[in-house]
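Quick check before the chapter quiz. The format below is the same one you will see on the exam, so make sure you can read both the input and the output lines.
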Amino acid sequence: MQTSADRQDRHHYPAHWEADVVLRDGGTARIRPITVDDADRLVSFYEQVSDESKYYRFFAPYPRLSAKDVHRFTHHDFVDRVGLAATVGGEFIATVRYDRIGTDGMPASAPADEAEVAFLVQDAHQGRGVASALLEHIAAVARERGIRRFAAEVLPANNKMIKVFTDAGYTQKRSFEDGVVRLEFGLEPTDRSLAVQRAREQRAEARSVRRLLAPGSVAVVGVGRAPGGVGRSVLGNIRDAGYPGRLHAVNKAFPEDLEEVDGVPAYRSVRDIDGHVDLAVVAVPAEHVPAVVAECGEHGVQGLVVLSAGYAESGPEGRERQRALVRAARAYGMRTIGPNAFGIVNTAPDVRLNASLAPEMPRPGRIGLFAQSGAIGIALLSRLHRRGGGVTGVTGVSTFVSAGNRADVSGNDVLQYWYDDPETDVALMYLESIGNPRKFTRLARRTAAAKPLVVVQGTGTAPQGHTVRATRLPYATVSALLRQAGVIRVDTITELVDAGLLLARQPLPAGPRVAILGNSESLGVLTYDRCVAEGLRPARPVDLTTGATAEDFHRALAAALADGTNDAVVVTAIPAIGEASPGDAELAQALRSAAAAVPGKPVLVVHVELGGLAEALSAAASTAPRAADKAPGTEGGAPAPPGREDTRRPVQRQAGTVPGRPPGAVPGRPPAGVPEPPGAAPEQSPGVVPSPPEGTRLIPAYPAAERAVRALSEAVRYAQWRREAADPGKVPEYDDIDERGAARLIQGLLERGEGLTISAAETCELLGKYGIPVRRAFPAPTPSGAAEAARALGYPVALKATAPHLRHRADLGGVRLDLADEEQLLRAYAELTELFGRPEELRPVVQAMAPRGVDTVVRAVIDPAAGAVLSFGLAGAASQLLGDMAHRLVPVTDRDATSLVRSIRTAPLLFGWRGSTPVDTPALEELLLRVSRLVDDHPEVVAVTLEPVVVAPHGTSVLGATVRLAPPPARDDLGPRTMPAY
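Here is the expected output.
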């Protein structure tokens, strides 16, 4: 009789079980099923395992595998017997297998749902998290094959393996018998197992990026023999930045007797380098890259930065070349930035790595920068480094990554690194596309809770070189979901830098109240107007007059910061006229010393034609700025705008004095009466901008009011999100929800087909199980049928045409309301058929009248890339023409539902606009929560539309509903950790 062990490939080879994973130390491995072709690999692997590890696996000395063992461990049916291997460079480094067993512990087949599991990890790779990754994947395979529990027997001394099981987060039962620890655990993911998995994912991916950004040794492959060229330029940039590690120049065309290039040791191959290489920067033509990757992999290089072009951005042939590059690099455990990358930068003093095409090393600072586009990366570095585009003030960079085609390392990986990087306070990202929106949103929410994340998002059309998951969500919807996750969404790289400067230098505002002060009334008014337009609450501007001294600015700023009715201060400044006007350094010192006294409130400066003020405000020993770009301002005689009462008096100069610097004031020092910051530098020579002491809070300055106010408004909204994120609310439970009944109904309906829009009656039944009643509409194919339906419903009724071109278009006259009796009904029926055609074209229906209110629309859809999304808006032109819809990711909490209702621009219509009666928004929020629960509980419900939903002063009425069912899309975020497939 043939046993299951002899039935190799009872199922076809499960290629979908293959996966690349990032290990605990940041390296990579490939996990795949073990087949009959792996006999030699298995024997070689076993020979490299220590006797102790073999003893722990087999509970006895087991020096070598017999031919029978090899056959057993390589022949699987992929159902009851499954083996997986983790490989690096094509060779096994670890294995795991399960055997299905019955209640008696003997081999069994389905419907038995328990299996024994066992691991073996090569000693050289223990401690890298290989077993934990294999456990996640073998558990996913087992669930797919109907296995619900694992059992494992472990020797008590095998603490490492016991820890693998106990740390996994599954619900466990432990027993001890005959000197062996027996562990049993269910395989359904739990909140704890998902949390463990995601924590491991974060640590592994962060370390993989850290290995790229902080290498101990670097080889530049493709260094030209003559000056110029990409490779030679990058080599010079690394050397000139002061990189302290070992640096190597590589080119197979070097003469054999060449020992150095530009003072750097030269080699013809990476293999010739004596010692390990952590990072290889590849700058050779695309056709030569595969040979370089093989050399690097065989030499043990940990990561690659591929600057070479000619990949997916060049067409189908290049796309296949890119896939081969990633497969080859991962086979050797290497991660790859690029191809077609601009490079990477790390300004940490112990790293000082400029492995990029940027000719100058950016100034050290607290901003992390990620760009998929090399050109945009250049622009961002330039704006931060040279204050280009009029951005005043200088803030340095902690790390910079230009991912190019991001074939491997993506923005998600860099987010994982920045999340707990102590050198990065603010993350700025330019994303031309989002490869995995579901994961990016999850990571962004976690990162934004710890530090600001500012993103410029592409228009939704991915560059040719990017592999992006298809999404059916509009660009505006994806943007809204990012904002829900705490992402500060801006539209241009100018706004990206503006927001980054503020968030890197100043504390978050406690609210939207803004004080405005300065020496120009018109600039103050302009700032006030922009604050109102951005939804802030500005006070009346305080005009210090054009003769204001540095001391005047200091006193006014100190008073504004001390005022408890202000959450932030915007200082406006224009050049003063007169020989004794305050110098730039003097004014900057005055503002900084005032701000230092109240460190909890942000201060911004709007400057016009003050070439040195920006430098003075942001001067620091490590960030000496260049000359500021200048932007002209305007003067005007606009009257003071209305606003909340201002209890302060504008600072006035004493009558009869000449505007200017107080007697004895020294350039570069605070004027008389202005205290010096602690640790202030001694007196400087005239004309020299002093550097503030270490730790001094820098004040961002902007050349235009609208830019400063826009940055401040983003900071206000982000601060509000941070406060709300601390208490995200809860998903309420409703006693009247019949989840099991809905599941049975859905299962029965799906048996009719894989994707279908269910009937009106079935829709009403399904929604009813979640406490969502729908007012039935009865078909009225004839006047008599309409009258019969009306009698069954009771008057008054509504008569509606439901043809696609008339549905939800009351403005076209296809709806007749408040029909009080049969006579009115028949007259309305005749009018509709006369206006729009025969009944079979109109598809008229009769429906009971609902209480008057505001017509709204509620939608839910499961997107394969982003997940389940709940949307809300007003029905009709507001949502269809203007796109005034708000969106939230499912599951929606009670706080989410409250904010969803209030997020649309037309929300005032729900709250008594212009004297109308406010409607029942709590009932509307409950409806939203019930729809969210339905979609979250049953992923087979792939689309729900409720339109219209009439929200009355008391209660809601759902007048139309459609539901679509289909097998749910795969949830890779609930499965084992994997890297994007290639």
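If your answer matched, good. The chain has 27 helices and 39 strands.
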